[in-house]
Amino acid sequence: MPAAPILIEFDHVSLGFGGVGVLREVSFQVRRGETKVVLGEAGAGKSVALKLAIGLLRPDAGRVEVLGETVSTLPERELYALRRRIGIVFQESALFDSLTVRENVAYRLEEERRLGAEAIEARVRACLAAVELEEAIDKMPAELSGGMQRRVAIARALATEPEILLYDSPTAGLDPITATNIMEQIIKLRDVNKVTSLLVTHRLQDGFLMATQCWDAGRNGLGPAPAENSHTTFLVLHQQRVAYDGTAAGLRGSADPYLRHFLQR
Fold first, then answer.
1. CA–CA gap between residue 152 and residue 50 (Å, rounded)
2. Cα–Cα distance between 11 and 31 in angstroms, integer?
3. Each residue of 88-114: pLDDT tens digit?
4. Do 129 and 218 share a domain, yes or no?
5. DSSP 8-state assignment for residue 202
């Protein structure tokens, strides 16, 4: 069976700020339908990688390619068109406080003016249904819990039917039960919608949940994933470089002293 096409590729990417290196010679790939979980200590460059992927930052050296486009050299007008094909879930949800849930999810659709009012309404409801939150469509963000706000943010990211989803610490600041619920929604999107994702997190348990669980439509919930879940891989950043890039099993079984220490934190 041929390998799925590569949708995200970092090729020897280096970046620093004010003479201080953040990423050095970083290379990795994300294939269609894959979720790559990006791990590392604070300041390891995890969120910087997301910004490079959407062209908010340009590398000092190397190449960033997304959806067949060389993001690292793409003009701003073409970057804007590319970003329409990418959904982003920010760490703090970043919902508009003055807009209802419906208006938040519809925001990019209204801006792009490619769909009529009825089609937008149908898309908004479908996206909210995907995160099991359709009943909150007329609520304001302030009326929602932190977990519900995060789910609305995922629905908003889905609204434009992106080919790639970027998650920046989607469970940060949430209690363990709510965090698990959010990860369940992300796993469902991976397995049902076949969404390709780059997921930054500081929580090891989020990554291993992605690797060990899959969406079971029969039980409408999670079930054990195959022993080697090829749809979820791991990237560990350490001291500006890639310390690991591979499967959950390979990460758990690594003899590398740093990785063993990192997993035992």
1. 20
2. 14
3. 888 776 888 999 999 999 998 888 877
4. no
5. S
Is the C-alpha dihedral spanning 212, 214, 51, 24 positive or negative?
positive
How far is Cα 106 from Cα 125, in angstroms, rounded to an integer? 10
Half-sphere exposure of 20 (CA within 13 A, CB side): 6
Q: What is the pTM of this model?
A: 0.88
- Residue 175 to residue 189: CA distance in whole angstroms: 21
Contact 122, 137 (CB under 8 A): no
Residue 90 lies in a domain: no
For residues 38 and 200, the answer to whether their CB atoms sit within 8 Å is yes
CA angle 88-137-125, nearest 5°?
70
Task: Say if CB 9 and CB 64 are below 8 A apart.
Answer: yes
User: What gap in Å lies between CA 243 and CA 99, rounded to an integer?
Assistant: 42
Looking at the domain assignment, is residue 205 inside a domain? yes
- Could you tell me the two tokens for 49? 């990688």
- Measure the CA–CA gap between 179 and 203, rounded to whole angstroms: 10
Q: Is residue 179 part of a domain?
A: no
> Are 71 and 55 contacting, i.e. CB atoms less than 8 angstroms apart?
yes
Residues 25 and 156 in one domain: no
Query: Whole-angstrom distance between the N-terminal and C-terminal Cα of the chain?
Result: 38
Please, are residues 52 and 28 in contact by the beta-carbon 8 Å criterion?
A: no
User: Which residue's entry shows tokens 């969406």?
Assistant: 215
- Rounded Cα distance between 52 and 70, Å, is 11
Residue-range definition of the domain harbouring residue 152: 95-162
- Of 246, 254, 222, nearest to 37 (Cα)? 246
147-174 pLDDT, tens per residue? 899 889 989 988 888 899 999 988 888 8
Strand partners, 214: 223
